[in-house]
Amino acid sequence: MKVQIRKATPEDASRLATILRLAMAEVVDYLIGSKEEEKAIKFLTYLIAQPDNQYSYENIWVAEVDGDILGQACLYDGTDLNRLRTPVLEFIHQQYQHSPDVFDETASGEIYLDTIAVASHAQGMGIGKLLLQHIIDFYVRQRKATIGLLVDKENPKAKSLYLNTGFSKISEKSLFGKQFDHLQINSETADH
């Protein structure tokens, strides 16, 4: 199986929305004020297809085999969080008449890995690990950047993957009533 990793395009939006939702169903439901899956998929499809927002195709890496998208990683510079979040909140307000409270999950100084998710039919095939290794190589090894992420304390499997890939815990955060570990990897810790 030859996995190709590439940048997403606007045409990938509808296929990516379903995968992205796997990683952030609770967050999307909170943001739009609805638990309707169809609304959530429509919300994500629209934002993925648009430039210049948190969930834009511009910020997504895709893993695919023979044209079948198996996974995605969405990440962006923490410095740009507020600029990228503004169009998302404006769209939520216009489309869903909802104004959710949001929290800063990242800040300047790191490339923030917002989501990484693998399609249901491809889980257990190592796709997530391949995506993670690709973005570490691209951002940390080639560009000497720091990647940061939040991992739910109730997800030890994910935390273990990140720690085994070279991430280190730097702090703890509480968002949406949940506890998270803030992990980072940089060029000094990537190969140790």
Describe the protein's architecture and organization.
The protein has 192 residues and is of the alpha+beta class. Helices cover 39% and strands 26% of the residues. The protein has five helices and seven strands. The protein has helices spanning 13-32, 37-49, 81-96, 127-142, 156-164; strands spanning 4-7, 60-65, 68-77, 111-118, 147-152, 168-175, 178-185. A seven-stranded mixed β-sheet has the order 1-2-3-4-5-7-6, sandwiched between helices. β6 (168-175) and β7 (178-185) form a beta hairpin. It is globular. The two termini are 29 Å apart.
What's the overall geometry? globular
Numbering strands along the chain, what is their spatial order in the largest sheet? 1-2-3-4-5-7-6
Number of helices: 5
Low-confidence stretches: none
Which structural class best describes the helix and strand composition? alpha+beta
Major β-sheet, in short? 7 strands, mixed
Terminal CA distance reads: 29 Å
Order of helices and strands: EHHEEHEHEHEE
Rg, Cα atoms, Å: 16 Å
